[in-house]
Protein 1
Amino acid sequence: MKKNVRSNTPQEIRINSGRLRGRKLTFPSVEGLRPTLGRSRETLFNWLRPSLPDATCLDLFAGSGVLGMEAASVGAAQVVLVEQHAETAKHLAHSIDTLDLGDICSLEIADARSFLGRCHSSFDVIFVDPPFADNGLLETAVTAICESRLMSQWLYLEFDQQQEATVNALLLRHGLSLAKSTKAGSTRSWLVQAQ
């Protein structure tokens, strides 16, 4: 049964690892915002841990900010969080301030497409987990990232199982290879890199 959540009730999620382990982030109840589950995040950061010290990261559809801030917690030197929803961005700004991450995390209040169109920096790790309801967003984002050569090491993709064929085609088209994968229910979590 789906839990009814009042739209003005903030939700909480906990950072799993690193120096901020156990600290909570709040985020608004916004349609399409679904933070990466704790178990999936634990797996992801176990994969990424060797690559994160001093890394530059992009959390493209930041939402709760848990992926980007957990990367900062594990040792990333710079994290850019992109979020277009004003209320969600307000929570992100509060979390960055509360966790004293202002020297590591920067917040871009922008649509992911427009951000990618003007971004000229490459990132060691890019997190891409758009709302599942917008099927074209994942493809648009991955294409822009690859065409602009924004990924220098790892690309994390989180998507619904119904998009798996589309994502496989994307990897083939852009010369990316699947390094690690996990699933939780109908959600797929893939870590990919250039071939």
Protein 2
Amino acid sequence: MQVIGFNIEKIEAEKTVQEVRDLKVKYNTNIKSVTLEEMNIGKKQEVLRVNFQFKVEYDPNIGNISFTGHVLILEDPKKAKVIIEQWNKNQDNTTPFSVQVINIILIRANIKALLIAQEVNLPPHIPMPRLAPNKNIRPDNYIG
């Protein structure tokens, strides 16, 4: 599987309250459809187009961020047809293919969601590294 495109078609972000307390974050990433699309990549080839929706909801009613978009994946034509048949039959987000694609979406969408959260003044939805003071360092024993 080779990702050849990641496109966001719609972005929504909203902060509904000014004061954030007792923050809880819910994630939701769904594959909406999997189809074949013909593209000219040096030569005409069929690629998998995976339409998705990514949501981050800040509870209780603090705000939300959502994206809709698609991922373009270059796959062996025989395998691509099997993937589409399986998707059309089950629409299952737990198959190995779906899990791989959802992980790709999570990596890219989480980074974009962090930037959007900063723009609308929402807290980061994933834990950020923090520096804590070392209690063993005192001004009288510091060597530097």
Protein 3
Amino acid sequence: MSRSGRCGVTAAVTAVLLLAAACSGDGDAAAGSTSSTTTAPSSSVPAEGRELSWEVSLTSAQRILRQVGPGSTLNYGWNELVGPTTVDGAPAQVQMLGNVDYENGTGPFFGFVTLEFGPEDVLAFRMDGEATQPAGAQGSADSEFRAELTVIGGSGAYAAASGGRGTFTGSRSAELGGQVTGTMTATVAGL
């Protein structure tokens, strides 16, 4: 076997041995020690943070939404929705940039939500969700939304935002691109 082949085999054996040692615990645990090590979950969800909640009533500022497929039942595109809100007594502007991929009004959407308290004071989220039509509303314009929010970060007074998660629940009773209302909540670490 060549030198490079032996090095590769040695590296693979070393990796397997390290993995086996990690899975079986440390040597003290095998000898009867009761100590253990707990690692933080990999999801980076903060255990603590500032709780924020705000109502939204958003209208479309601009959009490109297309209908394709048999009977024009497939909808895709993007929409910029904007509107005022209040967060902990402070006025703010909400901007939602949403990308949609729906069939008969149901399907995934993703995008970004920005809370702007002033030109320098911004808090940003990624949004990943699902739109559905209420029972009995097949073919209507009505939709209900549920999305997870993930903190991206902030600037100005919100520059210390270091992570967090939240939810968006809402609805629309107009055609795709129409007014969206709902509630957003988030726990933001670092504030």
Protein 4
Amino acid sequence: MSKITPCLWFDTQGEEAAQFYTSIFSNSRIVHVARYGEAGPRPAGTVMVVVFELDGQRFLALNSGPQFTFSEAISLQVDCRSQEEVDEYWSRLGEGGEEGPCGWLKDRYGLSWQIVPTRLTELLDDPDPETSQRVMRAMLEMRKIDIAALEQAAAAPA
């Protein structure tokens, strides 16, 4: 078990969000749901904490009120092996959310995700700086990352 568990602060949607996320990623599950008791601060019986796993990584969803919301200062990166994976995660996580630049999106709960093909990292690490910069320029023009367009930029004559 990892020593670090990201805690995601929600107003009241922690259980709904955990169910949404676990429906998208394989090897995922709801581990435990804890409810507020008579001591509050929320009504007894309402969901306080949901412990869940996404592809084996444990998370905690805390329903603790509207005081704090997500920002792009933290995001979850999803490494994708193919365009099909990029398309699937982009579509499912972005459903009801908001597309951003360079492979970033916000889901319906406001949590930021980076949907990143491993091929992008490989092309950006190309030993030829000209190739790397062409790929970077192409990526900066994208919303959802398009691997074929990155490959085309990498292969373009200098």
